[in-house]
Every structure is written in C-alpha cells, then in structure tokens.
TrEMBL record:
Belongs to the class-II aminoacyl-tRNA synthetase family. Pfam families: HGTP_anticodon (PF03129), tRNA-synt_His (PF13393). This is Histidine--tRNA ligase. The gene is hisS. Homodimer. Residues 39-382 form the Aminoacyl-transfer RNA synthetases class-II family profile domain. The keyword Aminoacyl-tRNA synthetase applies.
C-alpha cells in the first residue's frame, strides 16, 4: 500500500477575511457614492502599488536584520527592503515627490485600496483592511482643511447618515501652545499626553487625569504608566479638553459655541506663537464652514488629537453618533469611521522645500458595518444570472445559442454545467445562485417552438401562499410560456418587472 498524501487543511490566516459576492457588491455601491462626492469636489483618482521601499514608508525603518514589527516586509533581489503599505498617505507623498515637475499644484487626488498591518489581530482588528483617502497637496491655507471637512460631511449625507454623525475638528498647534504653557517640553512626555487625551471617549475625564499623572490601573489590574505631570500642569490640560462642552442653553456646533470655545482656547495658550496660529486657523476654518452652511455637521472639539505624530496643524475625525452595544452588551456611541489632518512635513522627507498637505482617510470596513447597522448598506445578495437548464444532453448547441443571445443583449446568463440528470437539482442550483429566472426547453417545447420561463422571484412569492404539494405542482407558480424567438424580449420584460 502507498501512503496516502496528506491533505492540507484549508485555513485562513488570523487577521484576514474572505469576502462574499454580496459583501463585495454592497461595499462597491458604497464606494461609488464616496467617489461621486470626491469627484464633485474636483478630486481625481490615482493608484499606487501595494509595495513600497521600507524607507519610503517612514514610520518603520530596517534594523540590522529586518524591518521592525508593524509591517510585512521582504527583501528584493537587490537586497533592498520592501514593505506592504500600512496606509495610503506615505505612498502618496512618495508619488507626489517623484512626479513633482509634472503634477498640478495644488494636487487633489483620492485613493482606495487595501493596507496591511503586521500587528496582533483581535475583534474588529484586521491585518488587511481597506481605506479610502482624499488629499490636497501643495495648499497651505485653512481653506483646504475646511474643504476636507465639508467634503466628509457630504460623503456621510450621500451614504444616508444625515443627522447621525459629526465631523469633529481641532488643531494640534493649539494643543502645542497649551502644553508649552503647562511646561510639557520633552517629545516623550508630549506623546504620552497626546495618547492620554485620545482616550477621553474611552476612560472619561477622570481616566485621562490619571493618565496625565502617575498612571491608571484598569479593572484587570494592569497598570498604564502616565505622563507624570503635576496637578498644576494637569489643570490647564483638563480645562483645554473640557472647553468644547457648550454652556447651558448654547447649542453644540452653533456659531455661539464655536466663538466661546475659540475664546477659551485663546486664553489657555499663554504667549505661545504656535498656539496663536492654531487658534487663528480654527477661526478661519469655522468662518468658512459657517458660510457654506455646514454648521452643526462640522464642529469644534479640542479633545480630538489623532494618534499619528506627523500631523502638524488641523486634525479632524468623523464620529457616528448613534448607539450600539459593545462586547459587554452596554450601549455605546458607534464612534469614529475616519479621520485625518494636516501633515506639512511628510512630503518634505523627499524634497528640500516645504510642501503643505492635508487629507482624510475613511475606514471602509468599519463604515460598511455602520451602514449595515443603520440599514443603508444596500442589498447583500446581488442578482444572479438567468440559467438555461439542460433537459437533453444532445441539444447542448441549442442551449448555448440561447445563452449567447441573452449575453449579446447585455443580460447575465449561463448554461447549467453540472449533472443534468436531475431537474430539481438544476432549479435548486439556480435558486442558490439567486437567479431571477430559469429557461426550460424539453423535446416537447422544441417541437412546438416554445420555451418555458420560470420566474423564480414570483414563484417564491406565490409558493409561500400554497400549502399543498400537489396544488403547487399543478399551479407551477411563476412559470409561463413564450415563443422561442421572443426569448430576449420576454427576459428583458421579466427583469424590468422585478426591479
């Protein structure tokens, strides 16, 4: 006896997922709506490859043996390290710098595609996921930032989420001014403060206060070391993150709220020139937002800091405001589905002159989940092809001719290619394919020059009202007869009626 070949277990690596036709169709329709808004604002598509030289990505650089954890990397035949992109922004910076002489300035583009993170996967945390970005490179004024925020609001409206989101805006320069006033000077301490403020939604003010001080212990007993600030240093920072809360009787996002918040921020930055620039930029952004009629949809929120270190000015985030249940069954706000900001230093890694840039990234998978929860994702089961059943194996040419006629008329169609001995299994196959109809031509129909067309959608609806099997067979719900030459016209009429 020969030893049996060992079979390979069909396993999907952790952190990755397969996508079904329904999911692909639903997300594709969502992406088409986002594209339409981006293009209405004057943005054009560009596509960069999945791989870049590791040094191009910037965040992760090679050590002595291989790039640090965080990206998927390999060496090419020249022994140069390449990595799968972990976002769409760093590749854009490389593309713009490489094509600097030929591209228009400002350069407005959008990009959609998969990005990869070599990190520990978990619930809702994947190693491969899709992003959809829009960026303006070469425009340094707050007008570009304001436009980005307004475009994101229009995207949410186009997706059916009107009234269920806000675009939250802040400026990292203001926070830099507040930090300087509080005496926070080292880069390490600044980064710890940023991360602490970023946890406001998760831990609340008291939790942030602990993280700004000695540290915080969670329910499991794990301790997170804090920024080590004194009570005197923490006080202006807590005032800062609380400055976005409107006074009693003032509507959040209103002009009165924006003006009051900007005045509070101006009083917290001391004599910081950087902080003053940030306050002035926020005033300009919200002047434009108000004039364009986006007040209430785009709001000022000083607690928005964004995690990436390369942001240099305004930062923004889309937050969906409806409630869902978390893994513990507790009601929580759905939260962020995208964010971005100004990153004036990123392109300058490739060129000596300063190149301003601002952009936004949408998390496609997370946004699709939100649309599914709100009933705005669309059909998850796309219509299948019309299926021509095979009743007589010696008549395959005739069946194939029918399929060709339908396809030439722009109708999705296929001939059944499986085991044709069982008629019921052929119909069951068409049902599983979500076919709108099947076409039946046996010897009797062929002699008479007719076809039987079974409308599977109408058949399912009619069959639901029939309880007796004999009655169902006699009624043949959804089935009708047409002349052979009327096949295409009949199918077109049937598909139109099913819309």
């Amino acid at each position: 006896m020969t030893e049996k070949t060992k079979l390979i277990a069909p396993r999907l690596p952790r952190g990755f997922e397969d996508r079904t036709p329904g999911e692909i169709a639903a997300v594709g329709a969502m992406i088409d709506k986002i594209k339409a808004v981006y293009e209405r604002y004057g943005f054009d598509p560009v596509e960069t490859p999945l791989f870049e030289f590791t040094e191009t990505l910037g965040k992760f650089l090679p050590d002595t043996d291989r790039p640090n954890a965080g990206v998927f990397s390999l060496q090419d035949d020249d022994e140069q390290w390449m990595s799968l992109r972990y976002d769409l922004t760093a590749p854009l910076a490389r593309y713009f710098a490489e094509n600097f002489e030929t591209l228009p300035k400002p350069y407005r583009s959008y990009r959609q595609g998969y990005v990869f993170r070599n990190e520990k996967p978990g619930p809702g945390r994947f190693r491969q996921f899709m992003q959809f970005d829009a960026d303006t490179v070469g425009a340094g004024g707050p007008e570009a930032d304001a436009e980005m925020c307004m475009m994101m609001a229009d995207v949410m409206d186009a997706l059916g989420l009107a009234g269920q989101y806000v675009v939250r805006v802040n400026n990292r320069k203001v926070l830099d001014g507040v930090l300087a006033t509080a005496g926070v000077t080292t880069d390490e301490q600044k980064l710890t403060v940023l991360r602490a403020i970023d946890k406001l939604d998760k831990f609340g003010t008291e939790g942030v206060k602990l993280l700004l001080g000695a540290g915080r212990k969670d329910e499991s007993g794990d301790f997170t070391k804090g920024a080590g600030l004194t009570a005197e240093q923490i006080e202006p920072l807590l005032t800062y993150i609380g400055s976005g809360t409107p006074a009693e009787g003032v509507e959040k996002g209103s002009n009165a709220h924006v003006i009051a918040t900007i005045n509070t921020l101006a009083g917290l930055i001391g004599g910081s020139e950087t902080g003053l620039q940030g306050v002035q930029e926020l005033a300009s952004i919200f002047g434009l937002v108000s004039a364009a009629g986006f007040g209430g949809r785009v709001i000022l929120d000083p607690s928005v800091v964004r995690g990436l270190e390369y942001y240099t000015g305004p930062v923004f985030e889309i937050e969906l405001t409806f409630q869902v249940q978390n893994e513990k069954g507790q009601p929580v706000v759905f939260g962020s589905v995208g964010g971005g900001g100004r990153y004036d230093g990123l392109v300058s890694r490739f060129r000596r002159e300063p190149v301003p840039a601002t952009g936004f990234s949408i998390g496609v998978s997370r946004l699709a989940n939100a649309l599914k929860l709100t009933g705005n994702l669309g059909s998850t089961e796309p219509a299948g092809p019309v299926v021509v059943l095979v009743m007589d194996k010696d008549q395959m040419a005739g069946y194939q001719a029918m399929v060709a006629e339908l396809r030439n008329a722009g109708i999705r169609a296929e001939m059944f290619l499986g085991n044709t001995k069982n008629f019921g299994k052929q119909v069951a196959y068409a049902d599983k394919r979500n076919a709108p109809a099947v076409i039946i031509e046996g010897s009797q129909e062929r002699e008479q020059g007719i076809l039987q067309i079974k409308d599977l959608i109408a058949g399912k609806q009619a069959a639901a009202a029939i309880t007796d099997n004999a009655e169902w067979k006699a009624a043949r719900p959804g089935q009708f007869e047409v002349k052979r030459e009327d096949l295409v016209t009949a199918i077109k009429d049937l598909l139109a009626a099913q819309q």
